[in-house]
Specification:
The protein is of the alpha/beta class. About 45% of the residues lie in helices and about 15% in strands. The protein has three domains: about 60 residues, no CATH class; about 190 residues, Bacterial polysaccharide co-polymerase-like (2-Layer Sandwich); about 250 residues, Rossmann fold (3-Layer(aba) Sandwich), CATH 3.40.50.300. The radius of gyration is 50 Å and the shape is rod-shaped.
């Protein structure tokens, strides 16, 4: 008994074995790198557009920025020679000197020297001090929209630093001079008192000897202090400018080269990121392996786009008109796989459907029928699409009489079947093939009711007896119930997946609908220009 998918009623029919989908395991080892590269190639134009947009935006922002000029000066720092004012020679710490260069104290000197009223911390913002390793050189850089002002400030900080250090060293010398002078005055005062006392003492006084000894010692100390005072330097050297600042001839910012580089890097990163995000959020299947997993059956063929078929309203059998084209070769590969799968499950009648219209199911039936007949098989084609029949148009056959008349018992099957005679210009192996077609006949008012009759099962069984394989063209499975009705009496189902149905939801919906009526899904066919079919190529041609 066969169950009506619309009414739930059981009707007599012939099903030779339980109908279950052929489970096909998905590939466990996918090449992530290959899929990623394929994704990037498919999204190349969007990635390029985003990259160019970001680069253009970077150039626009760069062009709107105020040009900044940089002026540089170099200062050689030397230890200050303080003479006797310091007990030990000065030891330089260049890191400390670099911090001193960018201190507020130096900025105050620069502001006073150059008559600048700007806030000192704001004045220091554009100052950069570098200290090359293993050197006693400070490199001063100053940036400003005015190249002349940048030069003046770079020179001003170099001079201000030297002035600050010189002032500090001079102050230390002055302190040492004042200290020595105070000591010298005290010694001379004491010596004067001793000399006055000696002048009052008689020559034979016992105390006279000790006073003369103390006076001699004081004279020695006075001479030592006078020598120390004489040893103090009149001026001190703390360094010199070895590379004066010059006005810059070109701005350092904005830099168009850097802007383009950053824009290119950011644009590529954004474009690639959006490409992967869009791919993850998309419902479209990304590979044939993923399609097989959702369909629950193998992909038996991948048909590339037919460039010769520009007018879709005019049917084209590519396996007859362009036998050496990649598309014709793809149909021959499909033939081999279909025969192998059908033989494995003992299926002679195969229903061909799709999820939506315009996926190329009728073209698949026509071309697959031709290549099967070319291989010596007796093939019968059935146009069971009683709503928008098109299969007979591929062979220029009259469709006014056909399946609908047979099902309505207005005409016997033998009278409705038409032999297909191919043009004599074709090769010998195709001129005498065994190919028949059962046109759709007149479009009835209730196609689903007509296909549900027991007569449909009898028609398929009769054609199976006189054919090696029967291909049945039916309407899309997700559009009407006709395909589900015929799937119950056909021995296998071939699902054509075109550009409109390579989404996970569509493939799963077709699979679930067919499984509900117990149909056996033999495999799928990727048809037309799609992201999945783009993975297959025919380099031989």
């Amino acid at each position: 008994m066969v169950q009506d998918p619309r009414t739930g009623e059981s009707k007599p029919g012939r099903i030779e074995q339980p109908m279950r989908s052929v489970r096909y395991p998905s590939s466990e080892h996918r090449s992530d790198l290959r899929e990623s590269l394929a994704l990037l190639w498919r999204r190349k134009w969007s990635i390029l557009a985003i990259t160019l947009l970001v680069v253009g935006l970077a150039l626009f922002v760069s062009g709107r920025q105020t040009p900044i000029y940089e002026s540089r000066a170099s200062v050689l720092v030397v230890p200050a020679d303080l003479g006797s004012a310091s007990d030990a020679p000065e030891v330089l710490n260049m890191a400390t000197e670099a911090q001193l260069m960018s201190s507020v104290q130096v900025a105050e000197i620069v502001a006073e020297n150059l008559k600048i009223s700007t806030d000192l911390r704001q004045l220091l913002e554009e100052l950069t001090v570098d200290q090359p390793l293993e050197t006693e050189i400070l490199e001063i850089s100053y940036r400003d929209p005015d190249p002349n002002r940048a030069q003046r400030l770079a020179t001003g900080f170099a001079q201000g630093y030297l002035q600050y250090r010189t002032t500090g060293a001079t102050a230390q010398i002055q302190q040492s001079e004042e200290k020595i002078q105070r000591e010298l005055d005290a010694l001379q005062l004491r010596l004067g008192k001793i000399q006055t006392e000696l002048a009052r003492l008689p020559e034979d006084s016992l105390r006279r000897g000790s006073l003369e000894s103390e006076a001699a010692s004081l004279q020695s100390l006075i001479l030592e202090r006078q020598l120390a005072l004489f040893d103090l330097p009149d001026q001190v050297t703390v360094g010199r400018i070895i590379q004066p600042a010059q006005p810059a001839s070109s701005p350092v910012s904005p830099n168009d080269v850097i802007a383009v580089g950053l824009g290119l890097a950011a644009g590529l990163a954004l474009g690639i990121g959006l490409a992967f995000l869009r791919d993850r959020l998309s419902q479209r299947l990304r590979s044939s392996e993923e399609t097989e997993e959702h369909l629950g059956a193998p992909i038996l063929g991948t048909i590339p786009r037919v460039p010769q078929w520009r007018r879709r309203s005019k049917p084209l059998v590519i396996t007859l008109t362009h036998q050496r084209s990649p598309s014709a070769e793809a149909y021959r590969i499909l033939r081999t796989n279909v025969l192998s799968v059908a033989a494995g499950v003992g299926a002679k009648s195969i229903m061909v459907t799709s999820a939506y219209g315009g996926e190329g199911k009728s073209a698949t039936v026509a071309n697959l029928g031709v290549v099967l007949a070319g291989a010596g098989k007796r093939v019968s084609l059935v146009s069971a699409d009683l709503r928008r029949p098109r299969l007979q148009e591929f062979f220029q056959r009259d469709g006014s009489v056909g399946l609908s008349d047979v099902l309505a018992e207005r005409l016997p099957l033998s009278a409705a079947v038409q032999e297909i005679t191919l043009p004599a210009s074709l090769p010998t192996e195709l001129s005498s093939i065994g190919l028949r077609i059962l046109p759709s006949g007149r479009v009835p008012e209730d196609p689903a009711e007509l296909l549900t009759t027991e007569r449909m099962s009898e028609v398929l069984r009769d054609l199976e007896e006189t054919s090696d394989i029967v291909l049945v063209d039916v309407p899309p499975a997700l559009a009407v119930t006709d395909a589900l009705v015929v799937a119950q009496v056909a021995q296998g189902v071939l699902v054509v997946l075109g550009p409109n149905s390579v989404e996970r939801s569509s493939v799963l919906a077709v699979r679930q609908q067919l499984e509900k009526v117990g149909a056996r899904i033999l495999g799928g066919v990727l048809n037309g220009p799609d992201t999945l079919t783009a993975q297959a190529g025919y380099s031989y041609y």
